[in-house]
Specification:
Elements lengths: L3 E4 L2 H22 L3 E5 L6 H7 L2 H4 L7 E5 L1 E3 L9 H8 L20 H15 L10 E6 L16 H4 L4 E5 L6 E5 L1 H4 L2 E8 L5 H9 L15 E5 L10
Parallel strand pairs: 1-9, 2-3, 2-5, 5-8, 8-9
Antiparallel strand pairs: 4-7, 6-7
Helix pairs in contact: 1-2
């Protein structure tokens, strides 16, 4: 079974993620001078981002060493309310002293195919500052949809799970909104992958993925193994574990 971490409340989970971020960034700053974190959009991680921007943590992080990437982005301008970049800036990045050059956003306003290629190159070029390490990211924080999607990798789009491309252009299966997403080829080139999930509406999909990932390959998240950070509600289906 994959690593499980269950918290009483979303706030407790956010606090532990902030604590780990602090430890990881300080250690990485000393060893390699860079701590690369890939963030997901949506409502679930907002508590984490706001916690990171709180006075308790903002002055403890060596921000010069932190580099921020995105798991996916909607193809909208950065000022759009639907932009993952905009959401994370408002909750987090606008409130911390991170150098602008360390923020590696997906440019949702650009032509999607060209931008997916450009962002893949930016990820590869980032390895130049990682002192020979054969990974892209130190930490990838992933969300999880009730349909088993993660990043913008949706059920029925299996070709993206097997591609060697680092980025792809995907469409939401219901809204048909165009998005740019990292693929497993990019996400798995990381030191740590953490799914952070809250709410009982996610309990069923969490239990299927945690207890029997090999039998649930129809869910994109099953193709990207990682540790699980869950609040009690999301872990409801794991009571027998």
């Amino acid at each position: 079974m994959q690593s499980l971490n269950i918290f009483s409340t979303p706030e407790e989970m956010a606090e532990e993620i902030a604590r780990r971020w602090h430890r990881g960034a300080k250690m990485a700053a000393k060893v390699q001078g860079v701590f690369s974190v890939t963030l997901s959009g949506g409502a679930t991680p907002l508590k984490v981002y706001k916690k990171m921007a709180s006075p308790l943590w903002v002055n403890k992080i060596p921000w010069d060493a932190v580099h921020i990437f995105w798991t996916d982005e909607r193809c909208v301008p950065p000022e759009s309310e639907e932009s993952n970049y905009q959401t994370i800036c408002r909750a987090f990045l606008n409130h911390v002293p991170i150098p602008e050059k360390n923020v590696h956003r997906i440019k949702g306003e650009e032509e999607p195919e060209k931008e997916s290629i450009r962002y893949a190159k930016e990820i590869k070029d980032h390895m130049m500052v990682r002192k020979g390490q054969d990974i892209f990211f130190d930490w990838v924080l992933l969300g999880l949809g009730v349909d088993g999607h993660t990043a913008s990798l949706f059920p029925g789009q299996e070709e993206f799970l097997k591609t060697s491309n680092l980025c792809e252009v995907a469409r939401h299966p219901e809204t048909h909104q165009t998005r740019i997403t990292l693929t497993p080829s990019a996400i798995q080139r990381s030191t740590c992958v953490t799914y952070h999930v809250i709410g009982q509406q996610k309990a069923r999909i969490v239990s299927e993925l945690v207890l029997k990932p090999e039998k649930n390959k129809k869910y994109p998240a099953a193709s990207i193994l990682g540790e699980w950070y869950l609040d009690k509600a999301a872990a409801f289906g794991l009571k027998s574990c």
